[in-house]
Design a protein that fits this description.
Elements (H helix, E strand, L loop, with lengths): L16 H4 L6 E2 L11 H13 L9 H15 L8 E4 L2 H12 L5 E4 L6 H8 L3 E4 L3 E3 L2 E3 L2 H8 L4 E7 L11 H13 L3 E5 L20 H5 L1 E5 L13 E4 L3 H13 L9 H11 L1 H25 L4 E2 L7 E5 L8 H12 L1 E2 L1 E2 L10 E5 L4 H14 L4
Parallel strand pairs: 1-13, 3-4, 3-7, 7-8, 8-9
Antiparallel strand pairs: 2-10, 5-6, 9-10, 11-12, 12-15, 14-15
This protein binds pyridoxal-5'-phosphate (PLP).
Pyridoxal-5'-phosphate binds next to α4.
């Protein structure tokens, strides 16, 4: 089947965050959602549910767990037991719940910066300390700093690590060896790993992510993994996510916490959307991955030819590109982001919000029709003409 990712869909009057915070005629290549309609199977499921007209309380049927089990087994060769899985209304709510349940105020939580800005908020808003394990940026690529990671983990106040697998915003697809090493160090220092795998399906064609819990018994027994169709299928607004906790003791406590935080119950569309995604959305997703990969190639070629002073960090996952602006005369992303927006209406994310080490970077979301990508690139060129 052919899917039309070139179709321009008007998102005005839908309260779309990405489009509302923008001057008229602007181009929003920032917030991590896509300007594509979701997979036909999901639309059908949601439309069918809407047509029913009764939107009372829901339970989680066994088909919901089965759909996650099948998807992870077929795509990632990872067998998750039914009991490991619990529904949550969102990944960030679930991470915040894990933070409150498994750490105490003032304890330190590791994040690997530059990283998804909301990780900072989850930690700070719950009265814990951000404990940065900066990624090493060398020769234009990122890797983990294991010496520093061990040092940070060995602090007695450090009790949790938020792993981003694959990594937002750098697009790193962590290898088995890297994940194994994280798992070994965490177990050695009694640091619980929360592995956020929300971007896992959005890999370049031919590339595959490795679930943290699948790597070893050590990783499995000392982890909480968050999963969701929200990024892969563009259904973030449907409030549908999943927590996978293989170790029984951790699991019982996590389930209790999801309940006490009142994030364990689905809205009327959340379950059907997830089931449709994982049972009938595979073909659409693979077509999307091809389209995104083409977009990525177009951006790369454009920058090489037109803005060689910007370099794109090579990535293997996510639809987010991390642009190194350090060769520009003005490389402070706080200034750059505003200047690009004011001058051309193109909105990108400023790198400093992902940690101070991200200051000379911009993040660009390429999950939109190709015409919009090209328009954004032309605006970027215009905005940076005198830098
Ligand atoms: C790494 C990561 N985790 C979580 C989220 C958001 O998850 P949710 O909307 O389910 O809270 C995002 C959104 O961009 C993300 O990039």
């Amino acid at each position: 089947m052919n899917y039309d990712f070139d179709e321009k869909i008007d998102r005005s009057r839908t309260n779309a965050l990405k489009w509302e915070l923008l001057p008229a005629g602007g181009n929003p290549m920032w917030v991590a959602d896509m300007d594509f309609a979701t997979a036909p199977a999901i639309r059908e499921a949601v439309e069918k549910r809407a047509a029913h007209g009764v939107f009372g309380y829901s339970v989680i049927p066994k088909e919901w767990k089965q759909s996650y089990q099948l998807w992870w087994k077929n795509r990632y060769d990872f067998e998750m037991s039914r009991e490991w899985l619990a529904f949550a209304t969102g990944v960030i709510p679930a991470i915040s719940t894990a933070i409150r349940k498994f750490t105490t105020p003032a304890e330190k939580i590791i994040i690997q910066t530059p990283v998804y800005n909301i990780f900072f908020n989850c930690i700070a808003n719950n009265g814990r300390q951000v404990w940065e394990n900066e990624l090493i940026y060398e020769n234009g690529t990122y890797r983990m700093d294991f010496d520093d990671l061990e040092k940070k983990m060995s602090d007695p106040l450090c009790t949790m690590m938020l792993l981003c697998n694959p990594h937002n915003p750098t697009g790193n697809l962590w290898s088995r060896e890297e994940l194994e090493q994280v798992g070994e160090l965490a177990a050695k220092h009694h640091v619980l790993v929360v592995s956020d795998e929300i971007h896992c399906d959005l890999t370049d064609p031919g590339k595959r992510y490795i679930p943290f819990a699948s790597v070893s018994d050590t990783c499995r027994n000392n982890s909480i993994t968050t999963l969701a169709p929200s990024k892969s299928f563009n259904v973030a607004g449907l409030g549908t996510a999943c927590v996978c906790v293989p170790e029984q003791g951790l699991r019982e406590r996590m389930k209790r916490a999801l309940n006490t935080d009142e994030i364990a119950e689905p809205n009327a569309f959340a379950v059907d959307a997830a089931i449709a995604a994982y049972t009938r959305g595979g073909e659409w997703l693979d077509a999307l991955r091809e389209y995104l990969f083409e977009n990525k190639k177009i951006v790369k070629a454009f920058l090489q030819n037109n803005l060689p002073q910007l370099s794109i960090v090579p990535s293997e996952a996510t639809y987010l590109l991390w642009l190194d602006c350090s060769n520009l005369e003005e490389s402070d992303s706080e200034v750059l982001q505003q200047r690009i927006l004011d001058k051309t209406g193109l909105r990108l994310n400023a790198g400093y919000t992902y940690g101070e080490c991200g200051r000379p970077f911009l993040r660009m979301n390429i999950a939109c029709p190709r015409e919009q990508v090209v328009d954004g690139l032309n605006r970027l060129k215009e905005a940076l003409a005198d830098l």
